[in-house]
Amino acid sequence: MLISFLKKEDGEGEPKSKFMGKGDIIFLLVLAAVIGGIWYYHKSTKEETYSHYAKCEALFTADNLTGAKECYEEALDLGYRIDSLDSIGYYRVTKIDSILTLQITR
Question: pTM for the complete prediction?
Answer without folding.
Answer: 0.67
